[in-house]
Amino acid sequence: MRYPRPLRKGGTIGFLAPSFGCATEPYRSLFLHAQDIWKEKGYQLLLGPNCYASEGVGISSLPEKCGAEVMELFLSDADCLISCGGGELMCEILPYVDFQRLAREEPKWFMGYSDNTNLTYLLATLADTASVYGPCAAAFGMEPWHKALSDAFGILTGEQKVVDSYGRWEKESLKDEEHPFVPYNLTEKLNLHCYIGGCPAGIQPVIFHGRLLGGCMDCLVNLLGTRFDHTIEFTERYKEDGIIWFLEACDLNVFSIRRAMWQMEEAGWFQHVKGFLIGRPANGEPMMGLDADSAILEIAARKGVPVVTGVDLGHLPPAMPLVTGSIGTVTVNGEGNTMKIEMDYHG
């Protein structure tokens, strides 16, 4: 696994829009404000041609233009790259991204989440290059930064390799066109559930290790079975480490999540699993007697490994930034209200 060099003091941050750009409010104002913040910190900025574009369907521009922007920014002098936002059809840019070339070039950090799974996941599985499953560029326009944003930036600068849960999360955002910079509306208390073999893990701390791999399930099952799916080769290559799958869902309801888990299991993705980290689903309301935890546990419980649900991960912020491809050590306390993830960059 290749780990990029840290973002240096006064270095250049590159921005690209392989999914949505920052073309509408409040994202445009947030992105502009974020740029001011980074400039005040002394960083140089390099904006790709699609950062403010809105000429695509579900993404910023035509797929071939988005693919070209990805290659341009990865081959640029930027020290690291941050995606402008998520979206819907980033998968359509993949035929225009040369992963073989990216595997030969000097690696650089790429950060984004949601639809950006199409890049964070494939950088690891196709190019053996670590990336950050973390916030997109517009989020950094928040005042003040939540610790999740400081954590993410600390990973990019190399100052941080450990993240802790945040205690409270946002169910309903207060951000709108009139109030673009407001912080997270942290009304909900973190409520982790830890299971082993489908049963509650009890009051003892749970600790497990493995290589971090995952992202947004909506995107992952879309990639499954395509020519871009080299997951089995990746998990076999790192089977001595085993895999900690981190998974979250956006549009999928609880039955779609259960079907996605079944599909990944039947494809052999979970063969060397050491544990599951499951983020709060954005659309996880119970349906017909099935709740979000049960949707996961039908498959995950059979593996006999730790399964942690309600994790600070995904579309209901804040989210812990995770280095895809790194060796993770997860510690969950016995009371289910704190967790820590340490990330090592070796092998």
Q: What can you tell me about this protein's structure?
A:
By secondary structure, this protein is of the alpha/beta class. Helix content is 26%, strand content 23%. The chain has nine helices and 17 strands. The strands form three sheets. It has a nine-stranded mixed β-sheet. A six-stranded mixed β-sheet has the order 2-1-3-4-5-15, with helices on both faces. The chain has a two-stranded antiparallel sheet with strand order 7-8. A hairpin with a 6-residue loop joins strand 16 and strand 17 (339-344). Helix 8 packs parallel to helix 9 (292-300). The longest helix is centred in the N-terminal third of the chain and has 14 residues, at 27-40. The mean pLDDT is 96.
Globally, the shape reads: globular
| Count, helices | 9
Residue share in β-strands? 15-25%
Distance between the termini: 6 Å
| Strand segment count | 17
Sketch the topology as an H/E string, one letter per element.
EHEHEHEHEHEEEEEEHHEHEHEEEE
In helices, the fraction of residues equals: 25-40%
Radius of gyration: 19 Å
Helix-strand makeup class: alpha/beta
Oligomer class: single chain
Could you give a short account of the major beta sheet? 9 strands, mixed
Enumerate the strands of the largest sheet in spatial order, edge to edge or round the barrel: 6-17-16-11-12-13-14-9-10
Q: How would you briefly describe this protein structure?
A:
The chain is 26% helix and 23% strand. With 347 residues, the protein is of the alpha/beta class. It has a nine-stranded mixed β-sheet.
